[in-house]
Amino acid sequence: VVAADVVSASITIEYPNGTQDVYDVTSDIPNPVTGSFSYGSFSPVNGSYFVDGKYTITYTITTATETFTNNIITYLICQISCCVDSMFKSLPNKMCEMCNYDAYLTNALKMEALLKSLRSAINSGLIATADALLAQLQELCDWNECNCH
User: Fold this and answer.
1) How many CB atoms neighbour CB 146 within 10 A?
2) Exposed, middle or buried: residue 80 (CB in 10 Å: 0-12, 13-18, 19+)?
3) What distance in Å separates the CA atoms of residue 8 and residue 24, rounded to the nearest whole number?
4) Which tens digits make up the pLDDT trace of 1-19?
5) End-to-end CA distance of the chain
6) Which among 101, 111, 116 is positioned nearest to 139, based on CA atoms?
7) 68 neighbors 1 (Cβ within 8 angstroms)
8) How many CB atoms lie within 10 A of CB 44?
9) Would you call 65 exposed, middle or buried from its count of C-beta atoms within 10 A (0-12, 13-18, 19+)?
10) What are the phi and psi torsion angles at 53 (to 5°)?
11) Structure confidence by residue, pLDDT tens digits, 42-83
């Protein structure tokens, strides 16, 4: 496809909650198209920051006769990573007579193992597994009040 044949081009971002933002990038396609090119940055319209979860990015180019579509699935796990780091950061404070250090350490290690499993599932394209692990980690982080949002 040459740039002159493009009728429309868009990038759609589907957020973890199912809402979508659609960006018209037709005017950003260089003419002539040579090599690779990139678009500017995108800011979320549906919120003040990108939350943890699965994002589906769809790139669509339409000509007078055809439509070409490419999907990319990616995950953001910044808050979950912060939560697990916060658990380990708090370990020294849990070494007291009144604290249940062993239980806290067990939870921190479990969360770290789940986070590594999540990263592995994402990298392996195991979407259902990644979604389940992310939900479990989010529940544990909410219970542990990691204050990473």
Assistant:
1) 20
2) buried
3) 8
4) 677 788 999 999 999 989 8
5) 43
6) 111
7) yes
8) 14
9) exposed
10) 145, -175
11) 776 665 567 899 999 999 999 989 999 999 999 999 999 999
DSSP structure class, residue 116:
H
Going 75 to 80 to 84 to 85, the CA torsion angle's sign is positive
CB under 8 Å, gap of 24 or more: what pairs does 99-107 form?
107/140, 107/144
Query: Look-up: residue for tokens 């969360």?
Result: 111
Angle formed by the axes of helices 127-144 and 78-89, to 10°?
Answer: 40
Exposed/middle/buried for residue 106 (C-beta within 10 Å: 0-12, 13-18, 19+): exposed
> Which runs of E-coded beta strand occur in the chain?
6-14, 20-24, 53-63, 67-76
DSSP 8-class letter at 64: S
